[in-house]
Amino acid sequence: MAAHTDPLIALAGVTKRYNVGRPNEAEVLHGIDLTLARGEFAALIGPSGSGKSTLLNIIGLLERLSGGSYRIDGEDTAALDDAALTQRRATTLGFVFQFHHLLPAFSALENVTLPALMREGRVSAARLAHARAVLDAVGLGAAMHKRPGELSGGMQQRVAIARAVVLQPPLVLADEPTGNLDTASADEVFALLRQMHAQLQTSFLVVTHDPRLAARCDRTITLVDGRIASDARTAPPGAG
């Protein structure tokens, strides 16, 4: 385990190629150097096709890089086999997507307990109580026994955020978490992300196409054509 002064994630010279060895081989990431400190709240922006989703998938241990190195929480991901990658995802990462990916047959509470079930094979009384508390914290205490189909889009995304943070992972990756919401709901969901960040001091990396939301992050990383075009602090840490 890395010392807490070390970056939470560190990418050096990371490349990603698809269809390697074929006539249609393509490199979509070209030497990415990126670190994210513990407790940071950063936006990842860029035009469609710039490589944002590919970069997020590599950081989220959903895809392997083609070249360079990636260390997460001090561990070199190249040394991890598939089982170890799965374990690292379960212990280090939370995910929020544009489409919430909640299980429709499960209640909000059952959806939020899924990470504990997957990591530990059971949901203890303590985990269940904590899941209830997290749903209370995101304003859904009265709706925890409702299924996703009974909730609005903004409420469903609140459940997804609760699920992402319930085990207090060091890093939450959010891929267009407000992209499927109207402006008012998007603002509410973003405010909730900032609230969870302030309470938990979890790091957040948020992919967004909304410049208003990016401006409310502490740091904005811009990806263009598979390269980092700019990386600027946009507000004092904790602002927003």
TL;DR of this structure?
The chain has 240 residues and is of the alpha/beta class. It has 7 helices and 10 strands.
Task: Identify the notable features of this structure and list them briefly.
globular; six-stranded mixed β-sheet; alpha/beta; 10 strands; single chain; 26% strand; 240 residues; Rossmann fold
Q: What letter string, H or E per element, gives the SSE order?
A: EEEHEEHEHHHEHEHEE
Estimate what percentage of residues fall within beta strands: 25-35%
**Integer count of domains:** 1
Secondary-structure content class: alpha/beta
Distance between the termini: 31 Å
Describe the structure.
By secondary structure, the chain is α/β, with parallel strands linked by helices. It has a single domain (38-64, 82-233), classed as Rossmann fold (3-Layer(aba) Sandwich), CATH 3.40.50. 33% of the residues lie in helices and 26% in strands. The protein has 7 helices and 10 strands. The chain has helices at 52-59, 82-92, 108-120, 125-137, 153-165, 183-200, 211-214; strands at 9-18, 26-36, 41-45, 67-72, 75-76, 93-97, 171-175, 203-207, 219-224, 227-233. It is globular and about 50 Å long.
